[in-house]
């Protein structure tokens, strides 16, 4: 059997869970998985948004109000899904929050929020899904990290710290999981047009009194990616079992630069900090 035939036949998910599925990238991944034939449990902290997305998916969708920080709740979500549908093919650990600001502006709240949702939330999803998938000797875990998990992303240290951790967790688990028949991929998009860009958690002063990162992000990436494009690439990446799924020209370019020309990448990152400080000056002086 050729590798291509194997990959094509093996990608027919019938049951998926998407956390953070009520909005943005999660909603688009849920929609794409449903379009490709999976039943999708749309899980989100915001139960009403999860229900709206699930309703949009019709018979292929169901909703769950779940806080990914709550390990027991995530365990219950996975157990109930596997019991009700008899299996779990895809666990998309996607819920996340935006944290921005210079180190001197950040306090324990910022670090706790990032570590709880962006890292602990992924660990909880992985820990719940892996035993189920190991037992059935199949399944695919998709963790949403970010371009900020592949390169140093200044002025958002808690965010880049947790996203690097998610890349490390995912690529290391991929090696452990292979012999159990479980696949692991990590999604690393550049900037995507979702509400996350307007909802920086407890935005510090260098954001000029607002909580949007759009104006700063546009300096690096004038046109945002759409959530639908990211979801299509993500699911293609699952079908071809890619380890790391970067999305967008900025992600591909900076990831390569960081590996093959690190001094150039460091120069660009330094320029990004300078731009952030320049934009912050009127409100922080
Ligand atoms: N938007 C971007 O530019 C971008 C780029 C790269 C990576 N990402 C990552 O993509 C993922 C999705 O982000 P998005 O842009 O779609 O944001 P979004 O704000 O549109 O959606 C995030 C969803 O996660 C949910 N959520 C937040 N905390 C939760 C919790 N504790 N438990 C359960 N659900 C929770 C929110 O209610 C929301 O529905 C995040 O992990 C984010 O870090 C986003």
TrEMBL record:
InterPro entries associated with the record: NAD(P)-bd_dom_sf, Sc_DH/Rdtase_CS, SDR_fam
Single GO MF annotation: oxidoreductase activity
Keyword NADP assigned: yes
Keyword match NADP: yes
Cross-referenced CDD domains: SDR_c (cd05233)
Superkingdom, taxonomy of origin: Bacteria
Keywords, ordered alphabetically: NADP, Oxidoreductase
Record family assignment: Belongs to the short-chain dehydrogenases/reductases (SDR) family.
Protein's recorded name: NADP-dependent 3-hydroxy acid dehydrogenase YdfG
Lineage: Bacteria, Bacillati, Actinomycetota, Actinomycetes, Micrococcales
């Amino acid at each position: 059997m050729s590798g291509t035939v194997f990959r094509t036949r093996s990608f027919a998910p019938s049951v998926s869970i998407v956390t953070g599925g009520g909005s943005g990238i999660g909603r688009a991944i849920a929609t794409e998985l449903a379009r490709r034939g999976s039943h999708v449990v749309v899980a989100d902290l915001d139960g009403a948004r999860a229900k709206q997305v699930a309703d949009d998916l019709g018979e292929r969708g169901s909703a769950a109000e779940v806080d990914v920080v709550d390990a027991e709740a995530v365990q219950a979500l996975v157990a109930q899904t596997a019991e009700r549908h008899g299996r779990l093919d895809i666990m998309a650990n996607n819920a996340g929050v935006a944290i921005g600001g210079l180190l001197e502006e950040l306090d324990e709240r910022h670090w706790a929020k990032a570590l709880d949702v962006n890292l602990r939330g992924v660990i909880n999803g992985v820990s719940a899904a892996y035993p189920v998938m190991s037992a059935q000797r199949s399944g695919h875990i998709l963790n949403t990290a970010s371009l900020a998990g592949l390169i140093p992303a200044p002025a958002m240290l808690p965010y880049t710290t947790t996203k690097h951790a998610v890349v490390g967790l995912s690529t290391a688990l991929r090696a452990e999981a292979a012999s159990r028949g479980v696949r692991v991929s990590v999604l690393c998009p550049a900037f995507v047009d979702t509400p996350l860009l307007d909802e920086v958690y407890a935005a510090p002063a260098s954001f000029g009194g607002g909580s949007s990162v759009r104006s700063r992000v546009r300096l690096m990436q004038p046109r945002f990616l759409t959530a639908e494009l990211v979801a299509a690439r993500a699911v293609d990446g699952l079908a071809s079992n890619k380890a790391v799924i970067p999305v967008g020209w900025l992600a591909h370019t900076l990831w390569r630069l960081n590996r093959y020309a690190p001094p150039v990448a460091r120069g660009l990152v330094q320029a990004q900090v300078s731009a952030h400080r320049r934009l912050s000056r009127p409100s922080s002086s």
